Amino acid sequence: MLQELIVLLVVVAALVQVCRKFLPAALRQRMVYALSKKGFDQDKLAKLFKVQADCGSGCGSCGSCDTTPAPIDTSDDGGAKRRVIMLNVQR
User: Fold this and answer.
1) Torsions phi, psi of 17, nearest 5?
2) Is residue 55 within 8 Å of residue 33, measured between CB atoms?
3) Which of 1, 19, 33, 50 sits CB 3.0–4.6 Å from 56 for a disulfide?
4) How many CB atoms neighbour CB 62 within 10 A?
């Protein structure tokens, strides 16, 4: 019985590590939000899954949709050397 508990703890720890490392951030945020609705502490889960605590709640404070402005071209050639195309990612 004790061996089965130890194996279970090792498997759960491995599963958490895989989730932290390989799952996309959006999915990790959803998991934190869903588990916090079930009664778990959202701040501790956010630290565990390496996301911000309020992401997924719809409050807009997670900063995932913030974009940086395009660089301003101040060269004399009118930007012929380098052009930057900004893409807006919608999630």
Assistant:
1) -65, -40
2) yes
3) 33
4) 18
d(CA 56, CA 63): 11
Q: How far is residue 36's CA from residue 8's CA, in Å, rounded to a whole number? A: 23
Q: What is the pLDDT of residue 40?
A: 85
pLDDT of residue 12: 93
Burial class (CB in 10 A: 0-12, 13-18, 19+), 48: middle
For residue 50, the Cα-to-chain-centroid distance in whole angstroms is 7
pLDDT digits (tens, 9 = 90+) for 47-71: 888 887 664 455 555 555 555 655 5
